[in-house]
Design brief:
single chain, Immunoglobulin-like, 2 domains, four-stranded mixed sheet, 4 helices, 21 strands, elongated
Length: 280
């Protein structure tokens, strides 16, 4: 009986010793410290078309247990604009125990410009007609086509006479909100059926001091919501005249260029091009 007790005691001591060794090793291997990220510059300049490798350039990470874990770094998030063209990028690095280290820096885009609107139809609307304004588009250097983000605000076209304000708004994924205020001309059915100048574009953007040639946008003639070439109608450039005197290329703003149509035995009519001068 005594021998049995001694054997049990020995087994208990050995088992306890093995458990103690295991616990010591466990606590020795315990890693609860996150990797440390190092960034060579607090702000860098990149193109809006820069790839992930360029965003990660100059960012490294080391871990107390695992050493260099730079390969684990990922882009954890991007902020909306802090100011136009400047965002904050968050980085994260991982060790083999899934501890996470983070750091941030600013990215300044070298070629950013705000969203732009475009229209393939003139802002000439027939009175007492419903419009969904699907001819208005928007594009952005970051997101591409953002037409689905366009919001159009206007007063009732049924009650409008001659002119009516039209407000356009579009927001890209970085929180940049572009707004554009225009006027639409409300035409009677008779006026809507008259010939008018047709243009390739009806909203054009340019920079400070960068003049455009208005004649480059003349495409033919327009009638009842449809464009026609000069060849199809028998008219030509001699039936068109242009008044761009209201445009100030040195002051940011929205300006109208008026294109007049004149032909024998026909009333003079007009189409309008909006030139947006931006300081970019």
């Amino acid at each position: 009986m005594r021998a049995l007790r001694i054997l049990i005691l020995i087994i208990f001591i050995v088992t306890g010793g093995l458990f103690g060794v295991h616990e010591v090793r466990h606590f020795a291997d315990l890693d609860d410290k996150a990797p440390v990220l190092k960034i060579d510059h607090d702000e860098i300049a990149l193109s809006v078309e820069a790839g992930e490798d360029e965003y990660l350039k100059g960012v490294t990470a080391t871990d107390e247990h695992d050493g260099d874990v730079t390969d684990s770094i990922v882009i954890a998030g991007k902020s909306n604009f802090i100011e136009e063209g400047l965002i904050r990028v968050d980085y994260a690095a991982f060790d083999r125990h899934n501890n996470v280290g983070t750091a941030s820096r600013n990215i300044r885009f070298t070629d950013y410009s705000s969203p732009r609107f475009a229209s393939n139809q003139p802002f000439l609307l027939r009175k007492s007609t419903n419009y969904d304004f699907d001819f208005i588009h928007a594009s952005d250097v970051v997101d591409g086509d953002i037409t689905n983000k366009v919001k159009v605000k206007y007063t009732s076209l049924y009650s409008a006479t001659d002119e009516s304000p039209l407000s356009l708004e579009a927001t890209n994924s970085l929180g940049d909100i572009e707004k554009l205020d225009l006027n639409v001309r409300i035409l009677t059915p008779q006026e809507y059926n008259q010939f008018r100048p047709a243009l390739w574009e009806y909203i054009v953007y340019t920079g400070i001091g960068q003049e455009i040639e208005p004649w480059n946008y003349v495409a033919g003639v327009w009638q009842s919501g449809n464009p026609y070439s000069f060849e199809d109608t028998g008219f030509d450039y001699e039936n068109i005249s242009v008044d761009a005197s209201a445009v100030d290329y040195w002051t940011p703003g929205v300006y109208e260029v008026v294109y007049y149509f004149d032909a024998p035995k026909r009333d003079q009519t007009a189409t309008y091009l909006y030139i947006v001068v931006r300081d970019e």
